What we know:
Blueprint: H1 2-19, E1 25-28, H2 30-36, H3 38-74, H4 81-134, E2 139-142, H5 156-166
Parallel strand pairs: 1-2
Amino acid sequence: MIKVFKLAILLIFFLNNYSYSQEKIVFIDINYVFVNSNAGKDLNLQIKNKNKQLKKEVDDYKKNILLEKNKLISQKNVLSNDEYTKKINELENKIKNINLTVSKKNQDFALFKQLIEKEFSKKLNLIIEEYSVKNSISIILKKQDLLMAKNELDITNDIFDLFNKKINKIDIN
């Protein structure tokens, strides 16, 4: 009985050792690197400018349609019913075409943002991979996926510094 008890304790001791991983696990805040790095700031500026341009175009379309609508309403008593109906239909068709154009530009903008994120991720992943090999890191997690972790496991500043040293600008085709 004592031998079985000693064997059980010895087994628990050895199994307990295997449950503690010798792997090095760290985390990174990718959003911080994207927002604060030189290349990330440039990409964010490109996104912001493209978005501002898109909003300006949409506002211009709205102003033009509103002007045409008001002009048509002011001519309602002067125009015959057939001609008024014809002009209303033309305006509606113009609005449909503008909506299609705006929709296409919104899709293009979404694709542009995806392309930026993809290119940024490619460059960042190369640096993270190099860093992990150099520092014998087994697992790197995203900060936003963590519930809690020690601050010593955060490699964001190291990656941020490396990223800024190696990549100043990312060209988007």
